[in-house]
Amino acid sequence: TIDCDKIKELSAKYPKLKEINYTYGTAGFRMKAEYLESVIFRVGILAGLRSRKLDSKFIGIMVTASHNPEADNGVKLVDPSGEMLEQQWESYATQLANAQSDDELINVIKSVISQNGIDESKKASVVYARDTRPSGPKLIAALEDGIKAISAVGENLGIKTTPQLHYFTYYLNYCEKPTEGSCDELADKVYYEKFSKAFQKAVGDNQRLSDIYVDAANGVGAPKLKDLAQWIDKLNDNIFKVTIINDDTDTRGKLNFQCGADYVKTGQKPPLALNLACEQRAASLDGDADRIVFYYVDEDGTFRLLDGDKIAALSAGFIIELVKTACLDISVGVVQTAYANGSSTAYLERELAFPVSCVPTGVKHLHHKAQEYDVGVYFEANGHGTVLFSSKALDKINSDGSRTTEQEKAIKKLQALTELINQTVGDALSDLLLVESILINRQWTFKKWNSVYTDKPNRLVKVVVADRQIFKTTNAERTLVEPNGLQEKIDKLVAQYKDGRSFVRPSGTEDVVRVYAEASTREDCDQLAFKVAGLVY
Ligand code: NG1
Ligand code: ZN
After folding, report:
1. What is the DSSP string of 312-368?
2. Is 357 marked active-site?
3. Ligand 1: nearest atom to the Cα of 66
4. Is the CB–ligand 1 distance for residue 459 below 6 Å?
């Protein structure tokens, strides 16, 4: 049974800050690092309970604030198969985090136990990692006290990317775990081995492309990509030439500062310190390496962004071609959010004839929708996403049968892709290799890839408001239902612009309201975004 005295004793080290109301949102808990100690301690407890509930399976805990400023941090829980925490448990997380006293905390714990019929005598196992933020070690110490308080067994993976933690949580639960060596090293090894081998298989004996610069946002992606590239070199030292920039994880203040995927996508410009020659290929990761965007500069100096929508189009297009060549009865669908560029949706639906669905922002919504297809491709425009192969699709791809050489080749490629894609979660490093392998197979330049459709000019702006909770949406966040009458005003503005589209929604991760606008010209689009922002403010 749970040891209330032990919990109270340890919890006393991490008193809840009275004035703060915490919410487990789309990205878990995320805020200024100094407000998070009590929350992280309690997350350790919750992970232990969840593990007991799920037959002692490993529950993952990632300490990161992704693309947020360096002073922020955050924490999220990962379910045994590497997926996001189940919804019902998000609300337990919120309740635990907001318990005002140690006694209230005990009451919430007891109520989670009784509501879920948790057997307190079962072993509890958790696995955790952090990104490179300076506040990480202190928060990990609080987490370890939470794990201790609930008498769970913890595996510390040290510094990892978010997708590595997701993948290794799955690995510990469902793959054979060798006994020797620390989990920290093992987690790196199984990851590099898996993805380097799959990449080798996916590129086959095709020609390499030109070098690529990767901006690692001065975060954890830098050391991990360096290692991964070395593993790839060992298998085939002439297939993937990457130059990592913004790889300084030691100097304070550099993480995500004027660099990284979010900076590039939002600002529609390269990282500050990067001077790009014409058609030099480049990409940016975010601070925990689960997002990636690609880009280059044209002959006439125009910056060209290849975002999540372009990645979805590239990968869905390649996969469906292989499926058709292999004559497999497998359906492929694409999942987007309202932030997907209108041109990408039109291209996927009209030219490639994919079923495309639109879901609310937040990876869990995309992930769940994508599970409805045999092969579900999902990417947020900001570069976060992956491809899910259902067991039906995997069975067909991996089954034997008499085939032509051409069909056999297509099947082999598909098999390689199922291994190359991190199916637990969107993964910048896996996505980098996925894109590179498709481009190598097609022998496409970035320019050629970019030309599949032309993005409509678009703008995303943040508006700071007194209370963002008053903004309520429907229709996958594309329509406001509250405040009353605001949507009608937005509609009127939108109608004044050719190919105009705009929507407003409260952010789930920042204290702002986001305004998105599209129109046929840059000027129109900026004006529309500005005017809609004026309505919100
Ligand atoms: P919010 O803050 O709810 O817009 C942002 C991103 C999401 C997702 C989450 C989680 C945009 C417009 N929104 O959500 O796509 O990545 O953060 O990190 O990019
Ligand atoms: Zn991230």
Report:
1. HHHHHHHHHHHHHHTT----EEEEE-TTS-HHHHHIIIIIS---EEE--SSHHHHHH
2. no
3. 18
4. no
Contact (CB, 8 A) for 135 and 33: yes
The model's pLDDT over 303-356, given as tens digits with 9 standing for 90+, comes to: 999 999 999 999 999 999 999 999 999 999 999 999 999 999 999 999 999 999
CA 183 to chain centre: 23
List 201's β-bridge partners, or say none: none
426 alpha carbon, closest ligand: 2
338 CB within 6 A, ligand 1? no
Q: Which residue segments constitute the domains of the chain, with CATH numbers given?
A: 4-159 (3.40.120.10), 190-305 (3.40.120.10), 309-426+441-450 (3.40.120), 458-536 (3.30.310.50)
Q: 26: Cβ below 6 Å to ligand 1?
A: yes
Alpha carbon distance 36, 32 (integer Å): 7
Strand-pair category, 212-215 with 242-245: parallel
Q: What is the pLDDT of residues 148-184, one digit of tens each?
A: 999 999 999 999 999 999 999 999 999 977 677 789 9
Question: Which residue's C-alpha comes closest to atom 16 of ligand 1?
Answer: 362
**Direct distance between the N- and C-terminal alpha carbons of the chain, in angstroms, rounded to an integer:** 52
Ligand 1: which of 23, 24, 26, 73 to mutate, judged by most atoms within 8 Å of the beta carbon? Answer: 26
Q: 403 C-alpha vs ligand 2 centroid, how far in Å?
A: 42
At 463-499, the pLDDT tens digits run 999 999 999 999 999 999 999 999 999 999 999 999 9
Q: Across-strand partners of 153? A: 125
Closest atom of ligand 1 to CA, residue 26: 10
Whole-number Cα distances in Å, 313 to 309, 348, 386: 6, 7, 12
3-state secondary structure of 257: coil
Reference 386, options 28, 83, 22, 47; nearest CA is 83
C-beta 288 within 6 A of ligand 1 = no
